[in-house]
Design a protein that fits this description.
The protein is α/β, with parallel strands linked by helices. The chain has helices spanning about 25-40, 65-75, 85, 90-105, 120-130, 135-145, 150-160, 170, 175-190, 245-255, 260-270, 275-285, 295-310, 320-330, 340-345, 350-365, 370-375, 395-400, 415, 420-445; strands spanning about 15-20, 45-50, 55, 60, 80, 110-115, 195-200, 385-390, 405-410, 455-459. The strands form 2 sheets. Strands 1, 2, 5, 6, 7, 8, 9 and 10 form an 8-stranded mixed β-sheet that branches. It has a two-stranded antiparallel sheet with strand order 3-4. Helix 5 crosses helix 9 (about 175-190). It is globular and about 55 Å long.
């Protein structure tokens, strides 16, 4: 798609949407925002972002308001929160919820995402087949599953039996950003959305690379952070000013929990060049402190002990099967860290991410019943704004006219604009943020707030 120049239309402004976690925000993210506006010709950029917990089943390294602030300082115009129930969910549900938010805002013309392919055609072609699932595909999929393959492996083998005009489906569905890109397009098709998908090619360092460019990371033990498929756009170049969010989280863990002295100073110097100056200032000069999974160890242990005492069926929570519930119960009395708990539960059947999400669902009381109910109501019941730029006033005006969902800018206003059912969902979402802040607030040395006192980020 060619770059198009466009004069801002104040009466009917256009917007490009980006779905992200910004965990944390880095140079690649700033680059994507810039290119998304260029490729789409949009006047504004709307970010639909995970809140305080992220898709792989972990707390975000910085709270949602800090990350929204980082995005607004680097080109975003409006930041909206993805409800925690789907922010910590499968790629399919994460994508479906985020796309539903963008679509029902009524002001988004394009969705821009990073991919290893860099070509939208092949991603659309695969997505269409997976949405419509012709009988031949379903038969092939069942045949491959009977061979003992995992669902992702069986799906790739089934797709190989269909002619594609471009890339091999195996290559399209074996890399994380391509997989997520297909899920975005599937969601657009299923929701009959008018939003046009565009993609940017991911280049540079490997997706699972946790090292920082230009620095020997051997002195620092690897943290248990595993890369998330939502740390997009992953659009680094060949220079050393780009790294994955996984590498930056690992560096932050090393800075706060690793060695000191000259090595630490060198590590901080390398990290500084991988994020925009405004992001670095918030990291270092602001009151935010990074949060890591093990910070939630005691809270997780207490939660499991309390559920064990009440004899609660753990399989009622999202992603928790009967078998996994039994394994978690047998381990509940062990006084171990959250990361160690995940490691000891991990099997060939249950991946690290699956177990992490299961435990976070238990911690946040996200049940299968709640997830099912929200899906039945098209995933979203309201638009929760975290922050915006004053220059985006025309966009906000248009949003209020075009959105088919209530728009929440102040927590206190929610009871006056939401239905009783939506209000219960909102209370559940507030609970998740308060759980996060109960841990993160301790690290802020008394500077903690809550969802009723934290102001909107306005620049």
């Amino acid at each position: 798609m060619e770059t198009s120049a466009k004069t801002q239309n104040k009466d009917n402004p256009s917007a490009v949407g980006i779905i992200a976690e910004y965990n944390p925000f880095h140079n690649g993210h700033a680059y994507q925002i810039k290119k998304a506006k260029e490729l789409s010709g949009a006047d504004f950029c709307i970010i639909v972002m995970s809140g305080d917990f992220v898709q792989r089943g972990a707390p975000a390294v910085f709270d949602k308001y800090t990350r929204a602030h980082m995005a607004l300082l680097s080109g975003a115009d409006l930041v909206v929160e993805i409800p925690p129930a789907f922010a910590v969910s499968s790629a399919e549900d994460f994508a479906a919820c985020a796309v539903a938010l963008l679509d029902r805002m009524g002001v988004v013309s394009h969705l821009c995402f990073g991919s290893e392919s860099g070509k939208i055609g092949p991603l659309v072609q695969v997505a269409q087949l997976l949405v419509h699932e012709p009988e031949a595909f379903r038969t092939a999929l069942k045949r491959e599953l009977k061979k003992g393959l995992t669902f992702p492996q069986a799906r790739i083998m089934a797709l190989k039996q269909f002619p594609f005009s471009a890339e091999d489906p195996a290559s399209l569905l074996s890399t994380p950003n391509n997989i997520l890109g297909v899920e975005y397009v599937k969601a657009l098709i299923r929701q009959n959305s008018s939003i046009t998908p565009v993609t940017l090619k991911r280049q540079g360092s490997g997706y699972h690379d946790i090292g920082l460019p230009g620095w020997d990371n051997s002195d620092f033990s690897r943290s248990s952070y595993l890369p998330s498929i939502h740390d997009q756009p992953r659009i680094p170049s060949t220079d050393c000013c780009f790294a994955s969010a996984s590498a930056i989280r690992n560096a932050l863990n090393g800075i706060h929990n690793g060695p000191s002295g000259a090595s630490l100073i060198h590590f901080e110097s390398s990290l500084k060049h991988l994020v925009p100056d405004s992001t670095w200032n918030l990291m270092v000069m602001g009151h935010c402190r990074p949060v890591f999974p093990n910070d939630f160890s005691a809270l997780m242990s207490y939660r499991l002990l309390e559920l064990l005492r009440q004899d609660v069926d753990l399989s009622r929570f999202g992603d928790v099967s009967q078998e996994l519930a039994a394994r978690i119960r047998r381990q509940a009395l062990e006084p171990i860290s959250l990361e160690k708990r995940v490691e000891t539960l991990k099997t060939r059947q249950y991946t690290y991410t699956r177990i992490s999400r299961s435990l976070i669902h238990i911690l946040l009381h996200i049940t299968k019943e709640e997830l099912s109910c929200r899906k039945d109501h098209d995933y979203v019941s309201y638009v929760r704004i975290l922050g915006f730029k004053k220059e985006a006033a025309p966009l906000l005006t248009q949003l209020k006219k075009a959105a088919t969902l209530p728009i929440i800018t102040k927590t206190a206003d929610a009871p006056h604009i939401l239905s009783a059912e939506a209000m219960q969902e909102f209370y559940n979402d507030l609970f998740c943020s308060h759980v996060y802040e109960s841990v993160a607030g301790v690290k802020k040395e008394g500077r903690c707030t809550n969802e009723y006192t934290h102001p909107l980020i306005i620049l």
